[in-house]
Write a structure and sequence with these properties.
The protein is built from 7 helices and 15 strands. It is α+β, with helices and mostly antiparallel strands. Helix 1 crosses helix 2.
C-alpha cells in the first residue's frame, strides 16, 4: 500500500505511469521494419569489379548494363530519431540533422523556391552557394567549402512506376536509391574533387584534412514516402562490408562502395522529414583518428509508417568537399588495406591497383579490372 500511495502522491511517478500506459503507441513508432537491398557477396567480385552503366538498357548490348546483383533483406529494424536527432553526431555516427529556421532568409531552405528546382542553372549557382555557406556555419574547424556535385539531376522526383523500375523509366529519371551504398571510395573522391578544387585555386591539398560531405533534404514536408535511412558508422565493418564498384556515366566513371549485409548494421531515419531539417552525412573523411566516423552508408526504403497515398518523394542532394587548415592532414591516411583485397577499403588502397582511365570502353571494363586484380587474393 505504501508503494501505491507513494505513486498517487508523487507527480514524477504519475508522469512516468502516464508515459508508460498512454504513450505506448509513440514507443512503438520509434522503430519500424523495412527492406534494404545489399550487394550479393559473389566470388566473382574478387576478380571482376561490380559496375552499372547509367544508360537505358535498350541502348546497350544484351547483358552489358550491369553485373551487380543485389539481394533484398527484409524485416530490418530502422529506428526513428524524431525528437532525439540532436543525439546523433557527424563525427561519431557519420550523420547528423541540422534544423534551420525556416523563416531565416539565409537558410538553405530559402536559397531558391520550390518551382525553381527545375532550373538547372539556378540550382547550380544559388543552391551551391547556399550549401557552401550552410556547411561553413555548421562544420566545426573547416576553413573552406567547395560544392562540386549540384546538378539538377540530384533533384530526385519519384516516378509512379518506382520501384518496379528502380532506376526510373528506362533509366532516364533519377530515383530513390534502394541499394545500400556510399557515394564514393577514397580514390573516387580524390579523382572527382580535383577539377573543382583547381577551379577554386587549390592545386594541392595533401597537407590538409579534407572530407566529402553530403547535404540532403526533401523539397516539401512532411516527407512520408521513401525516406533516406542512415547507417551508424560504428556498426560498419570497413574491412568486410565494402565492395568498390564503378558507376558509369557518359562523361565519367564514379567509383563508389556497394555494401554487403551484416547483422550488426544499425539503421536510422527521420520520420516526417521537413525541408528545413538538413541531413548531413559523410562520404569520406581523411581523418582516421580513433572514434571518428569516416563515411555513412545509406539507402532509401519504403516507409511502413507512411500512408499509402503519400506524396511521391522529391529531394535534393549536394556533395561538397570541406577543407580544414593547412597542416591538419595525417601523415598517411591510406596506409592500411583490406587483407582480403576484394575491397578497396575506407582506410586504404592497394598500391598496384589504379583507377581505369575515363575513356575505357564499358565492354572492356570487367576484363581490364580482372587483369589488374589478377593474383591479388
Amino acid at each position: 500500500m505504501w508503494r501505491l500511495e507513494r505513486i498517487r502522491t508523487c507527480p514524477r511517478s504519475l508522469r512516468s505511469l502516464r508515459a508508460l500506459f498512454f504513450n505506448s503507441s509513440v514507443q512503438r513508432k520509434l522503430s519500424t521494419r523495412a527492406t534494404f537491398h545489399y550487394l550479393e557477396d559473389r566470388t566473382e567480385y574478387k576478380t571482376t569489379k561490380p559496375y552499372h552503366i547509367n544508360l537505358p538498357e535498350r541502348a546497350l548490348p544484351p547483358g552489358l548494363q550491369s553485373n551487380e546483383v543485389s539481394i533484398p533483406y527484409h524485416g530490418i529494424s530502422v529506428a526513428d530519431i524524431r525528437d532525439r536527432q540532436h543525439n546523433f553526431k557527424l563525427d561519431i555516427h557519420g550523420f547528423e540533422v541540422v534544423v534551420e529556421d525556416a523563416n531565416d532568409p539565409s537558410s538553405l531552405v530559402n536559397c531558391i523556391g520550390y518551382e525553381d528546382y527545375a532550373d538547372e542553372a539556378l540550382v547550380r549557382s544559388k543552391v551551391r552557394e547556399g550549401v557552401e555557406a550552410f556547411l561553413k556555419r555548421h562544420i566545426s574547424g573547416c576553413e573552406d567549402v567547395v560544392a562540386f556535385s549540384h546538378q539538377a539531376r540530384q533533384v530526385r522526383r519519384r516516378d509512379q512506376q518506382f520501384p518496379a523500375l528502380p532506376r526510373g523509366t528506362d533509366g532516364r529519371i533519377p530515383q530513390p536509391v534502394q541499394g545500400v551504398h556510399i557515394d564514393m571510395t577514397p580514390d573516387g573522391a580524390r579523382s572527382e574533387i580535383h577539377e573543382s578544387l583547381l577551379a577554386r585555386g587549390y592545386s594541392d591539398i595533401s597537407t590538409r584534412r579534407w572530407a566529402v560531405i553530403s547535404t540532403w533534404r526533401p523539397l516539401f514536408g512532411p516527407l512520408q514516402d521513401w525516406p533516406l535511412a542512415m547507417m551508424d558508422y560504428r556498426s560498419l565493418d570497413v574491412f568486410r562490408d565494402l565492395i568498390a564498384s564503378d558507376n558509369i556515366y557518359l562523361h565519367k566513371i564514379r567509383e563508389n562502395y556497394n555494401v554487403l549485409w551484416n547483422k550488426s548494421h544499425k539503421w536510422y531515419f527521420l520520420e516526417n522529414h521537413q525541408p528545413n531539417e538538413v541531413l548531413v552525412f559523410k562520404t569520406f573523411d581523411t581523418y582516421a583518428g580513433k572514434g571518428n566516423a569516416r563515411a555513412c552508408p545509406h539507402a532509401a526504403f519504403r516507409n511502413p509508417l507512411g500512408p499509402e497515398n503519400a506524396r511521391p518523394r522529391e529531394s535534393h542532394e549536394c556533395l561538397s568537399v570541406v577543407l580544414f587548415p593547412e597542416g591538419s592532414a595525417e601523415p598517411n591516411p591510406y596506409e592500411e588495406v583490406d587483407p582480403r583485397c576484394s575491397t578497396i577499403c575506407l582506410i586504404g588502397m592497394p598500391n598496384n591497383i589504379q583507377p581505369l582511365p575515363s575513356e575505357t570502353p564499358p565492354e572492356l571494363l570487367g576484363q581490364k579490372l580482372a587483369e589488374m586484380r589478377g593474383g591479388i587474393e
